[in-house]
Design brief:
Elements (H helix, E strand, L loop, with lengths): L2 H7 L3 H20 L3 H10 L2 H5 L7 H15 L4 H12 L12 H16 L5
Helix pairs in contact: 2-3, 2-7, 3-6, 3-7, 5-6, 6-7
């Protein structure tokens, strides 16, 4: 595991990554014409797989998309919205090429990137 990943899954993941992303999502979603509820769910779930199982960190985007589908389905969230959220999580990483085909996917990816830039000292 490289030092970047080590910094993003430890004790400070909430305060140094997820929480700042929530504020950024609230600002960006209207600018992207993205559904705020879905973007916030993306933010809360996008790194879940890597946080819950450090062994999944390198492919956390893939496992995270699956986990989002599982969690949201268990709560009877609408299937069409689950698809948008899981697809956004799958392509959120700047280091992995993937088409961001929805406003929610573009918003999540940018929120994630902005958080990493803003929280650079925590790395």
């Amino acid at each position: 595991m490289n030092s970047f990943h080590a910094a993003t899954v430890g004790f400070g993941i909430w305060s140094h990554h997820i929480r700042p992303m929530i504020d950024t999502a609230r600002e960006l979603a209207p600018l992207y014409d993205a559904d705020l509820e879905m973007v916030l769910l993306c933010v809360l779930l996008h790194d879940y797989a890597g946080i819950s199982n450090i062994a999944l960190i390198e492919e956390h985007h893939e496992h995270g998309a699956d986990e989002a589908r599982r969690i949201l389905s268990a709560h009877a969230y609408p299937v069409d919205r689950i698809t948008i959220i899981s697809d956004a999580i799958l392509v959120h990483r700047g280091s992995i090429l993937g088409e961001k085909n929805t406003n929610e996917a573009r918003c999540l990816a940018d929120c994630d990137a902005i958080s990493h830039i803003q929280q650079f000292p925590s790395l």
